Structures are given as structure tokens and as C-alpha cells.
């Protein structure tokens, strides 16, 4: 379905994840974060960059990967994206929800 | 952001076979990843999973486990359990499943509370120094029930 956000029309799935990453930009990311109750900081963007790199390289995301990323530790990750960090971060990053159970 | 009515998961882990320990860990971690609170109460043999000296040496059960598709007599031979356990650990590593010690760190960092059962700790003559540093404390079962302090709490025995 279509959604209008940050003066742009984007396609999202039922849960609100972008279905076409090419439609994503930073303003859209900021707005989605806002809807999730998150105000983006430089540290947030650093993680979004990391997650998008993983996505572009078609590498699966996992909480263990975050731990090994060197970008952030798990405690900080939960603190920055409270209530389901990987789900929220991927939504803000404009990529699909991770399919992994870990 | 999801509509689940589950707000908090309390797990009681009473076994130390790899398949049971991982079941508890994956579910507890999965809860945290969904924004659901989770806690694990380690009791009886489950305590092996939080003993520094034992946690990296857990095995799958090759005897009395029909899903292994292995004759029980064979499963009991020396080395078979270790072999099967190593094969399983390799497969889990391919899926980026962390080893037990690292998984406990991840759980703790994720905000999952880890408790040891007082009765079982006393029974096995364990001391706090034998247990992992990430442990949040030693509780009675009554204390653990009091952790079910909100609507939408579920308790699961493994």
C-alpha cells in the first residue's frame, strides 16, 4: 500500500516496512523513527548505515551480528531502539523485517 | 509495535541438553527482540548451563531420543554423544547461533534476567563463584513467581 511521508509517496507492507528500498531517503527514515517514538541522533544513523550495508551485501542480520559489528554493543542497541531494536532499526532503514529467529 | 498480548515471558529451564537449553535461549532472546520482557530461572540440571566450568560442554541426548534416529544401544557407546553434539554445534554456528557462553552474554545485555534456583544450588553444593558473572541472583521459586508482576505474563517449563 502507499503511504505519504516526508512529502513523498512510498510503498509499504502492512506492518509499515518499505517494499522498495530505492524510495528511501534520510527524511523518510527520520519520519518513520518519529512514528516509532525515536529521535534520530548521529549514533542512530551509524547503526542504520551498518544495517543498510548488510542489506546491500545481502548478508543476514542477527543480534549476534550487531554484537560483532564494532559499531555498537547490544545494551546500547536496545537503549537506542527500545522495544524490538532490530525490527525498529530495519523499518527506519527502509529494508525488510529480518526473517531470522536470532 | 506488534499486537501480541504477551508482555513478559518467564522460562524455567530444568534440563541441560543442548536442544533444551537452546530452545529456552532462542525463545527468551526472541521475546526481547520483539519488545517482550523475558527471564530465565535455571533449576536442577538446567544449572549446568550457567556453571562456568560446564556450560561449554553440554551435549545433545543420543539415548532415549527417538528423533536422533539412532539405535539406543549405539547412542550409548563412548564418544557418540560428543560426536552428535559437535555436529549439531557446527550446524548451529552456520546459522549464526552463538555458543552457550556468548548466548548468555547476549541475553544479559538484551535485558533478559537470569536467575539460579536456590534449592538446586544448595542441592548441588554450588556457590556463586561457580556460576556465570551475568547471573542476576539466586531465587526461591516463590521469588520467581513474584516476577510475574504484570498482565500478559506467561510461564513456560522446559
TrEMBL record, chain A:
One cellular component term from this protein's GO annotations in UniProt: cytoplasm
Question: Any idea which UniProt keywords this protein has?
Answer: Cytoplasm
Kindly give the InterPro entries that the UniProt entry links to this protein: DsrC-like_C, DsrC-like_dom_sf, DsrC-like_N, DsrC/TusE
Q: What is its main location?
A: cytoplasm
Report any Pfam family annotated for this entry. DsrC
List the active-site residues: 101 (cysteine persulfide intermediate)
Q: Name one GO biological process term.
A: tRNA wobble position uridine thiolation
Entries under Gene3D superfamilies matching the protein: 3.30.1420.10, DsrC-like protein, C-terminal domain (1.10.10.370)
UniProt-recorded Gene Ontology molecular function terms: sulfur carrier activity
Compartments where found: Cytoplasm
Write down the PANTHER family for this protein, in alphabetical order.
SULFURTRANSFERASE TUSE
Regarding protein family, the annotation reads: Belongs to the DsrC/TusE family.
Q: Under what name is this protein listed? A: tRNA 2-thiouridine synthesizing protein E
Q: Which species is the source of this protein?
A: Flagellimonas zhangzhouensis
Automatic annotation (TrEMBL), chain B:
Q: Name one Pfam family in it.
A: DrsE_2
Which Gene3D superfamilies has this protein been placed in? DsrEFH-like
InterPro entries (UniProt xref): DsrE2-like, DsrEFH-like
Q: Which domain of life is it from?
A: Bacteria
Q: Coiled coil located at which positions?
A: none
Q: What is this protein called?
A: Peroxiredoxin family protein
Q: What species was this sequence derived from?
A: Flagellimonas zhangzhouensis
